[in-house]
Amino acid sequence: MYYTAESQREQKTISVMIQICCKQKEHRMNDGVLCTSCQALLDYAVLRIEKCPFQPNKGPCESCSVHCYNKEMRMAIKKVMVCAGPLMVMAHPLLALRHLLLKYFRVNKMACLPKRRKVNSY
Q1: Taking the CB of the first residue and of the last residue of the chain, which one, N or C, has fewer CB atoms within 10 A?
Q2: Per-residue pLDDT for 65 more than 90?
Q3: Does 80 reside within a domain?
Q4: Measured distance CA(94)–CA(91) in Å, rounded
Q5: Domain contains 112
Q6: Which residues lie below 8 Å from residue 71, measured CB to CB, with a gap of 6+?
Q7: Cα–Cα distance between 52 and 1 in angstroms, integer?
Q8: Distance from C-alpha of 37 to C-alpha of 22, rounded to nearest angstrom
Q9: What is the pTM of this model?
Q10: Higher pLDDT residue, 52 or 58?
């Protein structure tokens, strides 16, 4: 496992976004403790970040050619992004700005690999 500054920043960003969304949806977030569904989503997202095959030069997940999230969790993360994205600017402006800059301006050689083609074996 890689614990680079990039992966730690990404884990912090997704954690903050899930917390914001949990508060917005009133999932009974008490004293900074997430509801069970949001905590499960956070645990899953952190595990996917830690096990990313493109570490330590990982780029944003949405530009990656490999989708390591299962379909259900991918939809849940998209909902979190829609819910918390606009609020991140006010809640954590530096994290939001850094995420946007990395998303739009970073050229990453490893994370943008072409999709693998099936090879016919006879």
Answers
A1: C
A2: no
A3: yes
A4: 9
A5: no
A6: none
A7: 9
A8: 9
A9: 0.74
A10: 52
Q: Which helix (DSSP H) or strand (DSSP E) does residue 83 occupy?
A: helix 71-91
Q: Could you tell me which of 43, 71, 41, 67 has the C-alpha nearest to residue 53? A: 67
pLDDT, residue 72, reads: 92
Residue 24 token pair: 């917005």
Whether 116 is covered by a domain: the verdict is no
CA distance 67 to 78: 13
DSSP string, 9-54: HHHHHHHHHHHHHHHHTT---BTTBPPHHHHHHHHHHHHHHHT-TT
pLDDT at 48 over 50: yes
Lowest mean pLDDT among 9-13, 23-27, 69-73, 105-109: 105-109
77-111 as b/e: b if 16+ CB within 10 A: beebeebbeebbeeebeebbeebeebeeeeeeeeb
Q: How many domains does the chain have?
A: 1
Q: What residue numbers bound the domain in which 94 lies? A: 5-105
Sort 52 into a burial class: Cβ within 10 Å, 0-12 / 13-18 / 19+. buried
